[in-house]
Amino acid sequence: MSQTIIELKHVNKTYGDTVVLKDINIEIEQGKFYTLLGPSGSGKTTILRAINGFLDVTSGDVLFSGKRVNDIPANERKVNTVFQDYALFPHMNVFENVAYGLRIQKQAKKDIKARVLSALKMVRLEGYEDREIAELSGGQQQRVAIARAIVLEPAVLLLDEPLSALDAKLRKDMQYELRELQQRLGITFLFVTHDQEEALALSDEIFVMNDGEVQQSGTPVDIYDEPINHFVADFIGESNIVSGYMIEDYLVEFNGKQFECADAGMRPHEQVEVVLRPEDLDLTSVDQGKVTVTVDTQLFRGDYYEIVAYDGAKNEWLIHSTNPAKDGDTVGLTFDPEDIHVMRLNESEEDFDARLERYEGE
Amino acid sequence: MKKNTTNLAFYVPYGLWLGLFVIAPVLLIIYQSFFDIAGHFTLGNYATYFESGTYILMTLNSVVYAFIITALTLLISYPAAYLLHYTKHKQLWLLLIILPTWINLLLKAYAFIGIFSQDGGINSFLGMMGIGPKQFLFTDFSFIFVASYIEIPFMILPIFNAIEELNEGFVNASRDLGAKSWQTFTKVILPLTMSGVKAGVQAVFIPSLSLFMLTRLIGGNRVITLGTAIEEHFLVTMNWGMGSTIGVVLILAMFLIMFLTGERKRKGGRAS
To answer: Percent of chain B scored above 70 by pLDDT?
Structure first.
């Protein structure tokens, strides 16, 4: 059992009539990589600010190792933040930036030097101590910002969309480095991003946020394979979402046909939504297909073809296929029962988890 | 080619201005400083300036007054600009601070004569409190007070702008790294707004060196600065050469201040 180091209990935040956070309950354990994922305005940065102390919550408790810290100011909280724009001090060089927090703590000069140099080594910026901030590239500034925070050995490192200012290539590289750094240091990371790919790639656990609420939390695989609702299914990865009816356990009806599936625990004839991931759909001949569609457009994406097709009822289907199709062709789509994921409407996360437990335990 | 000539044309007004109203007067003052009262070429003016002692003392006097005025103005302006940054309707408050600069200096000086005089506002107030009339006008205090009052807007403006430009993110970062408010202030806010302080010091110190109207009206001629001396030489003794010499000294002082408060490259840094 890992130790819970940060906990948010029934946290709400409102500005006048605007609700920014709605009953947030989050537990952060020692040594894991957490991600708050959501579109802009979903409240993910607000949660970060509630933790690092730059925001007073309207109600609820923020706990560090079981102690309520709501009234403890930002400078006394044992967390450090890598800001979106890095906020590196322009009047100090790299060394002084990283040494800042240690100098505030009035550490001995010798210790400061040793710790700054080792932090810079950790982010692979050896030999950059005397550089000015303006001389560094975006990626290097990013690393200085990380070094400046980790040198203080925080219980949790908060990262507020730290990669959003970098170009695509550098972003990928930094993803690997962040993950590696987290594993090497063993410090808990709480990472904020709106990029679902980034979240899936980096995290041990993801909190998917929308409209100030945590929609779903879980491992990347859980969230990708078993999205709780339309929003999560749509936001994480690409998906085909069609409405249908649950006939009975393990049998769902959509597109006018009944299909065997791997989900259970709903009421008979309950209205549901069905998610099919584009990569789970395979092209086949019309007579062998479970759904018949007409190919509209096709894009070559390098490692696969992205095909947009429409069925008889004008529903759009997105297919990722290794084999090309021809525009205007009528083809069949096939999938396995376990590729079908059924979602109930307005199911709470608690109920969802309980239901999954029940039938997956069988 | 055509584009180049148009670009050049844009420089004409500025060039004319610079030539006629900056470079030419400075050259004329330097030229004038080499002639004595009878119109003969001489280095005597400079010799007098450095040998007489009176002028050196007067210069020191000016520098001390200008220093006190600048320091006092800075002491008031920095906190004022800082508070202003965090007030609602700051543009309105800023306007109220700038407003007095639209009123003629002479009018303000006369207003203060009224306020400070024996039967002026302050003394009648003190009288009511039972403290007898005090001499305010024609004292060092009144001179420094009025001079600071007049210079304050010129100090607040650049500092206010520098604080406005300061990225709030630096303040948050500093707090996040454990700094208390005053540590954040001395280590981050102050250094990053130093450009505004320097600009303010430039805008206040140099004019303060050559204040002459206030020295007469408020200081009652008890405070003699370089400005007073120049006025005296040009308008009373008609010794233009000596007046110009002091003018040259002022110009050199200006360059010295610009150099001392100017942006310098930090060691080891190549960044601008």
So the answer is: 95
> Which of A188, A155, A187 lies closest to A77 in space, CA to CA?
A155
Q: Return the minimum-mean-pLDDT range out of A73-77, A180-184, A305-309, B120-124.
A: B120-124
A chain contacts of residue B191, beta-carbon cutoff 8 Å: 91
> CB B169 to CB A83 under 8 A?
yes
> Phi and psi (nearest 5°) for B130?
90, 5
* Interface contact A105-B178, CB threshold 8 A: yes
Pick the range with the lowest mean pLDDT from A39-48, A84-93, A350-359, B200-209.
A350-359
Is the CB of residue B28 less than 8 Å away from at least one CB of chain A? no
- Does B189 reside within a domain? yes
With respect to residue B57, please indicate whether it lies within any of the assigned structural domains: yes
Q: Copy the structure tokens of residue B10.
A: 């844009």
Instruction: Give the pair of three-digit tokens for residue A176.
Output: 């690997």
Residues 159-198 of B with CB under 8 A from A: 167, 169-170, 172-180, 183, 187-188, 191-192
Please indicate if any CB of chain A lies within 8 Å of the CB of B267. no
Among left, alpha and beta (phi > 0; psi -120 to 50; other), residue A228 is alpha
Q: Do B18 and B27 contact (CB within 8 A), yes or no?
A: no
Angle, alpha carbons B73-B79-B80 (nearest 5°)? 75
Exposure string (b/e) for B123-149, b if CB count within 10 Å is 16 or more? beeeeeeeeeeeebbbbeebbbbbbbb
pTM of the model: 0.81
Angle, vertex CA A313, rays to CA A309 and CA A319, nearest 5: 25
**Domains in chain A, CATH or no CATH each:** 4-225 (3.40.50.300), 237-361 (2.40.50.140)
Q: Evaluate if residue B2 carries a pLDDT over 80.
A: no
Answer whether residue A160 shows pLDDT above 90. Answer: yes
For residue B152, give the CATH number of its domain.
1.10.3720.10
Phi, psi of A310 (to 5 degrees): -125, 140
Among chain A, residues having any CB pair with chain B shorter than 8 Å are 52-54, 73-76, 80-81, 83, 85, 87-91, 93, 100-101, 104-105, 130, 132-135, 148-149, 152
Q: Is residue B159 part of a domain?
A: yes
Position B271 confidence tier, pLDDT thresholds 50, 70, 90:
very low
User: Residue A33 pairs with which residues in a beta bridge?
Assistant: A189
Residue A7 has pLDDT above 50, yes or no: yes
Quick one: which of A154, A159, A177, A181 has its CA closest to A37? A159
Task: Please give the structure tokens belonging to residue B35.
Answer: 């002639």
The count of other CB atoms within 10 Å of the CB of residue A218 is: 21
- Pick from A194, A128, A209: which is nearest to A163 by CA? A194
Of A93, A133, A152, the CB nearest to B177: A152
- Give the gap in angstroms from C-alpha A182 to the nearest C-alpha of chain B: 19
Q: How confident is the model at residue A212 (pLDDT cuts 50, 70, 90)?
A: very high
Q: Decide if A74 and B176 are in contact by the 8 Å CB cutoff.
A: yes
Contacts B179 to A, Cβ<8 Å = 75, 100-101, 104
Report yes or no on B32 lying in a domain. Answer: no
Domain of residue B254, residue span: 45-271
Tell me which of B170, B174, B175, B176 to substitute to probe the interface with A (most A C-beta atoms closer than 10 Å): B176
Mean pLDDT along residues B36-62:
87
Q: Which residues of A touch B175 (CB under 8 A)?
A: 53-54, 73-75
Q: Is B63 on the interface with A (CB under 8 A)?
A: no
